[in-house]
Amino acid sequence: MADVTGTTGTLVLAGTPIGDVADAPPRLAKELETADVVAAEDTRRLRRLTQALGIHTTGRVVSYFEGNESARTPELVEALTGGARVLLVTDAGMPSVSDPGYRLVAAAVEKDIKVTAVPGPSAVLTALALSGLPVDRFCFEGFLPRKAGERLGRLREVAGERRTMVFFEAPHRLDDTLAAMAEVFGGDRRAAVCRELTKTYEEVKRGPLAELAVWAAEGVRGEITVVVEGAADTAEELDAAELVRRVQVREEAGERRKEAIAAVAAAAGLPKREVFDAVVAAKNASRTGPAEGKGLS
After folding, report:
1. Were 194 and a residue from 79, 82, 225, 283 both cysteine, which residue would form a disulfide, CB within 3.0 to 4.6 Å?
2. What is the DSSP letter of 145?
């Protein structure tokens, strides 16, 4: 219970199952039963979780989700400074990872309040391990923007990323996202779509992005995590003619030259100026005779 001696409390970030309730960490039940305050992303889901675990919360239960995170944080910090043990849980996985939690952690750290965690399941690590793609270095990109233009822009920013990338995506946007990834990263880039991890209908679909985009167009349901292979270290292997060819392919597909140059440069890990110069040189050469870059005039 809350400490009445004036000592500050503790913020506990607790991982919850991403599917199978049997994956709940052993400490989770104890923390749920003894916390002074339980802040939950969805109090209804919390109730179902406690029922599945066969336990009851004894502390105050409050909602803590994207819509009230800013307003609720000061209230929880006040409870922590008063000595309370505050447990933060989200619908699935670890708080603060594409879920509410960051603001509260930052506020607690600023007040020198102890922050600890109950480690638990993570869709990011589970999908990464199941993907069959390199796991020695990876990065988490969360959800991509919903608007098509902004989504393409974000993907172009990471087109040259060498590490394996992990994304979250809504099922109704998956086909558009995979198609955009194929456009920016290349249709032959390897990827894995992990659906309903640890649940009854768990599925991991692996293959080139172009093939996965066609598969997803038929409709996909459930919680989705996408793992994409990092860019190959090919900067030194691409000569000017190949850079020009790649720009030309994108232009023929309807992309503006400026955007095509930026995408090719990002994918190759090169400065945009280097690709631009190669295109200009090819254009000039095409005016005086046959050249590799003919067609870019």
Report:
1. 225
2. P
Write down the pLDDT at residue 289: 61
Q: Are 227 and 264 in contact (CB under 8 A)?
A: no
What stretches of the chain show up as alpha helix (H) in DSSP? 26-34, 43-53, 69-81, 102-110, 123-131, 148-157, 174-185, 209-216, 240-252, 257-268, 272-288
pLDDT means per 10 residues in the chain (297 residues)?
Answer: 65 95 94 98 96 96 95 97 97 89 95 95 95 95 94 91 96 96 92 96 96 95 96 69 88 85 79 89 78 48
Residue labelled with tokens 């209804």: 44
Token pair 């920013």 is found at 157
Pairwise CA distance, residues 159 & 155, whole Å: 6
Let me know: does 175 contact 216? Beta carbons within 8 Å. yes
Q: Which residues lie closer than 8 Å to 295 by C-beta, 6 or more apart?
A: 248, 286
**What's the confidence (pLDDT) of residue 264?**
83
Whole-model pTM: value is 0.75
CB distance 178 to 204 below 8 Å: no
